[in-house]
Specification:
Blueprint: H1 21-26, H2 43-49, H3 56-63, H4 79-88, H5 90-97, H6 128-141, E1 146-151, E2 160-162, E3 169-171, E4 180-187, H7 190-193, H8 201-225, E5 230-233, H9 240-246, E6 251-252, E7 258-259, E8 267-274, H10 288-295
Antiparallel strand pairs: 1-4, 2-3, 4-8, 5-8, 6-7
Pfam families: Dehalogenase
Domain Reductive dehalogenase: 181-278
Protein name: Reductive dehalogenase domain-containing protein
Amino acid sequence: MTNPTDFYPANHLPRSLYQREEDMAAGIEVGPDFRRFDQKDDIFCRAFWDETVRSDASMEFFRSHGHSFNSRNVDGFTQRDFALRNAAWSVADDYADRNRPNGLREGFQDPQEARYPPAEQRFPVEDAAAMTIEIKRVARMFGCDLVGVTAYDNRWVYATRADIKTFEKKPNDLPLGLTNVIVMGHGMDYDLVKSYPSALAGAAVGMGYSGEAVTVAQLSQFIRNLGYQAIGSMNDTALVIPMAVQAGLGEYGRNQMVITEEFGPRVRFSKIFTDLPLVHDKPKKFGVTEFCNICQR
């Protein structure tokens, strides 16, 4: 049924042509000028190729995550603080570096490479709801704090990936037949996060990324062992925020982050694209928007 306000003002496209019911249920506003996002335009890629973002400070930030860093005798920035931060990143860094010779940066610009392909024989899923419960249980066993399921939506998938050397666009090809996205939340240490923008706070982020890498690898392989496709993804391949909101993990906040009931915005998200039969969760509202409307700050 057409909404009378669809055609007001008259020179605008009908809202029903670009705003879906599932978007409205999740509190996601999609405009008539929407286009899919290119990975090269994310802030981490732009820090390398965009002169309006790239700076000596941004380059030092990336360099400091290696073996050498410029520590100083200030709380949060000592050698011990940098040592802890960089150690926390070590697992995520191992995944990111293991296929660099092949032009891949897993977890940041490319999805994780599968250790083994899907089993030839598929495990029969007679009850998608029961399988969803099992997948969520396994995901938590492997280390995530939050988990939800939403439909695969190509709008949120990057139009293109970015080459790790040139940052030029390259194809973002995913296999056909993907139907669902498992979205996982990974809470970060409260006390460490409070010390932002110190190097010490980066240890909480590093633990989040390293934990994601392990959980995504394990759950993806579990699904492949059942005979289904599973593409494990961290900071790569697609916009995770709308997926997390649609999977019922939180609300979209004015800070442009997902605000969860359990952790607020102090959480990282990963996702797995799959064709395993699952039941979708619904967006969950718990008053974030209403609170902001009352506060009006």
